[in-house]
Amino acid sequence: MTGVRSDLEGSNGHPGAAAQVSAEAGTTGAVGQRSGLADAPHDKHGGRTWGLRRRWWVAAAWTVAPVALFFCYLRVSQTEPGDSYGAVFTLQAWDMLHGNLLLHGWWLSDVSFYTTELPEYMLVDLVRGLNPDVVHVAAAITFTLLLLLAVLLAAGHTRGKEAAVRMLIAAGIMFSPQLGNGIFVLLLAPDHLGTCVPVLLAWLILDRAHPRWYVPVAVGALLAWALIADPVVLLTGVLPLVTVCGVRIYQRAVQERLPLLSQRYEASLIAAGLIAVGTASGVLAIIRAFGGFHVNPVSPFLASISALPHHLLLMLEGLSLLFGADFFHQKLGLTTGLLLLHLVGLALAGWAVCVAVRRFTRNLDLVSQVLVAAILINLAAFVLWAKVGDVTATREMAAVLPFGAVLAARLLAGRLAAARLLPVLSVVLCGYLVSLGLVAAHHPRSPDNQQLTDWLIARHFHYGIGTSWLGSVVTVSSGERVELRPVTIKNHVLAHSQWESQASWFDPRKHDANFVVLLGHPPSPPMSTVTAAFGPPAHTYNVGPYTVLTWNENLLTRLH
Asked: Model's pTM, two decimal places?
């Protein structure tokens, strides 16, 4: 593939695009001058001084802005309490820091995050130690990186004021997550949004680099890296890339009767995507063969026809939540008004998708084609998947937020400027800043089950078992002074959990568990199931919504 070029550099190899790109460039320039997007010409003597000052200002902005965003998002993340889902990744990273790099003995969920968030958690664990704030710090780093990559990709090949407008559109759509479920989905525990970071980096390389042999190699490597961590990358990265390149090859080879050799670049990108899938599968198999972590399989079931209307409604509510506009069930007031203002960002993303679909086979660049394909594929998969329960399942389609923001910026900046709507968008952007400030002004919240953690520490309880929603967060919040391990019910019998847990936790030769924590009323796990497994307890304590049962023996010897 050495020396491969597209027919027109900058048009991503689209046939006959030279005239279209030239025409669009002329139109963009004209629009930029009419709307103020084009840079003002420099005078003869002051141009060099102004250019130097501008470079210093740009460098300062790119240095200060990420730091400011990180601390802002850290504060925003802390408005939601950490839970066991995030805490278990802190424990995994802690185990890796102490030598268990392959996570021997770990049963993970259907997503490992092994090559994405877990290395990040290791670095934060190294600096912060084992504590519940690790989840918030890592989430703030991830979202900041995601926002910066989205802004860079939104700018594309533009410069000056037009690039600035594109960047502000993308950043504005993304940077103000909604309090509550919005933060839970976007700025808490590791989830599919984090795996968008290497995917966006792959699209950035695809957008900025000339079509050379190393571009498919780099894109394939990044997709494989992300796929090891998260199989959803099949929907957000591999399948869109393969589909778009296949369409481009068909269009050029069949419809326009161009020689197949002129499609080498697109063919190499298809090969890169397919090789990435095989590479990721091979790496996971090797890790498993060497005794490393085990990933539970993804649910293969599709939704029933009767469930589709419910899934469609959840998709609409989920899109509102992702874009910070979920005003459903909210009281009237300033907060609701700001949520309604976020409908502008959602509308821009929806408009951009419609524009991209209409222009898909004509003069749309490769990256924009991939972005719109990823959005549509991800939304379709969300509606058709059986495991869509409530609005928090929105995390399965979280990639729609950064992809939609980038697409809106790339396709609509010129249109909005020509329509003289930039002042209106400036007002909307100010509203988003106010919204972000109000969210960040909320007080940080303690981790889930902090009352239980404090009670167990005060009474010197050291090792016990409980439900998965209690165990890891209590362990991390206490700094492992109390270790509470997750159990589940299999065939009406209490058994150790094989979901986000470690086999050695349940080894009676290593640990002595002498208490069980039940949650809620009626309690979970049921009292009858617990006493059937361990007999009547020696003591019973009621601690708010928790029931603590103790025995004078090692309960792990009786656990299945």
From this structure: 0.88
